[in-house]
């Protein structure tokens, strides 16, 4: 039998928690400290299950998944399809493993086509574009110290394959409900959310998270203005009726409007701090990232692990580029490095 949402336990405790009639949150473990788990959501749809996201292909995640499904009287073979919010390994790769055994259908947003193609058929490092950009950001030392990232190790193990279906903005008609597919680029280029308007539920993936600020633009391909895309996506979902937030990381909440407002305010504050750093003399994205503070603990860049240093420098670059597009700083490329300067 499924359990009610825990009151005094951490959100990442294993189990199968009813968040609404016939909708269950299943936290699956992840192999790192920053994000301890990912929520996947099981929708009971007649005599089958539809999953929102799948978790990462790990033996411990699979066994946790199987135990949770047993409380519903179900197994992995009862899943009819996976509806995936985006390409990141903690959302996509276990679906691939399950499909190899049970021929389960996988659906993914069409905006992820290029990244999937790069990940599924890598001719070189699938993160080469990101590493080249880091070099141009003045972060060559970070690139030199990285080695293979967990994402690259996954890709090298052939954990990525194309989905059975590419989702566009459409409505998915299940037996028991309708799910509207909404494009929300920013976290990744092809990120999507699923909105159940009748039952007032937003399956938000990593677009809106209750406790942390989603990273921006980390994927095999680099595309222009992911931060601008993310802010536009936030404003777009803000126009939806306020509904239950079902996030990929963290505890579900009764509404999402307030959190969207907080995320928009955060990035507005961040843009201001980034502009101030440039005015005070920082020039490359790496130099600006060293001035800024990171995480809720206000850490310096050097206090982060190498992977999160990479994310931090790239996010700083995106904030700087948006400031340049707004006419608040000047951007140039000199001797292979991006530079940003205060307006004269």
Structural notes for this entry:
The protein has 344 residues and is α/β, with parallel strands linked by helices. It folds into two domains: 3-258, Metallo-beta-lactamase, Chain A; 264-342, Arc Repressor Mutant, subunit A, CATH 1.10.10. Helix content is 35%, strand content 22%. It has ten helices and 15 strands. Strands 1-2-3-4-5-6-7-8 form an eight-stranded mixed beta sheet, covered by helices on one side. It has a five-stranded mixed beta sheet with strand order 9-10-11-12-13, with no helix packed on it. A two-stranded antiparallel ribbon has the order 14-15. Helix 5 (140-146) runs antiparallel to helix 10 (306-325) and helix 7 packs antiparallel against helix 8. The model is unreliable at 150-157 (pLDDT under 50).
Briefly say what this structure is.
By secondary structure, the protein is α/β, with parallel strands linked by helices. The protein has helices at residues 59-70, 89-102, 113-120, 128-136, 140-146, 150-156, 226-238, 257-279, 285-291, 306-325, and strands at 3-4, 17-20, 23-29, 37-45, 48-52, 79-84, 105-109, 165-167, 171-173, 178-183, 192-196, 201-205, 244-247, 329-334, 337-342. The termini are far apart.
SSE topology sketch:
Layout (H helix, E strand, L loop, with lengths): L2 E2 L12 E4 L2 E7 L7 E9 L2 E5 L6 H12 L8 E6 L4 H14 L2 E5 L3 H8 L7 H9 L3 H7 L3 H7 L8 E3 L3 E3 L4 E6 L8 E5 L4 E5 L20 H13 L5 E4 L9 H23 L5 H7 L14 H20 L3 E6 L2 E6 L2
Parallel strand pairs: 1-2, 5-6, 6-7, 7-8, 12-13
Antiparallel strand pairs: 2-3, 3-4, 4-5, 9-10, 10-11, 11-12, 14-15
């Amino acid at each position: 039998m499924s359990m009610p949402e825990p009151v005094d336990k951490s959100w990442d405790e294993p189990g199968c928690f009813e968040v609404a009639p016939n909708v269950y949150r299943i936290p699956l473990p992840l192999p790192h400290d920053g994000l301890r788990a990912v929520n996947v959501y099981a929708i009971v749809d007649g005599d089958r299950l539809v999953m929102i996201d799948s978790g990462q292909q790990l033996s411990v995640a699979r066994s946790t998944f199987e135990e949770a499904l047993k409380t519903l009287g179900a197994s992995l073979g009862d899943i009819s399809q996976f509806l995936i919010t985006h390409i990141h390994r903690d959302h996509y790769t276990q679906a691939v493993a399950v499909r190899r055994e049970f021929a389960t259908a996988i659906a993914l947003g069409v905006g992820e086509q290029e990244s999937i193609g790069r990940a599924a058929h890598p001719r070189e490092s699938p993160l080469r574009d990101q590493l080249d950009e880091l070099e141009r950001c003045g972060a060559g030392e970070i690139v030199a110290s990285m080695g293979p990232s967990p994402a690259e190790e996954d890709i090298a193990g052939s954990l990525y394959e194309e989905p059975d279906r590419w989702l566009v903005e459409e409505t998915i008609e299940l037996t028991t409900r309708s799910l509207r597919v909404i494009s929300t680029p920013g976290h990744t280029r092809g990120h999507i959310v699923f909105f159940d308007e009748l039952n007032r539920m937003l399956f938000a993936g990593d677009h809106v998270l209750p406790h942390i600020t989603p990273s921006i633009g980390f994927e095999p391909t680099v595309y222009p203005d992911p931060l601008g895309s993310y802010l536009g996506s936030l404003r777009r979902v803000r126009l939806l009726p306020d509904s239950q937030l079902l996030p990929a990381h963290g505890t579900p909440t009764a509404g999402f409007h307030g959190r969207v407002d907080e995320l928009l305010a955060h990035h507005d504050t961040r843009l201001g701090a980034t502009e101030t750093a440039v005015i005070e003399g920082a020039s490359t994205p790496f130099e600006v990232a060293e001035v800024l503070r990171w995480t809720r603990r206000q850490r310096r860049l050097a206090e982060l692990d190498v992977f999160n240093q990479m994310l931090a420098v790239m996010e700083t670059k995106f904030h700087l580029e948006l400031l340049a597009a707004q006419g608040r700083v000047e951007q140039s490329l000199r001797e292979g490095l991006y530079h940003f300067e205060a307006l004269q």
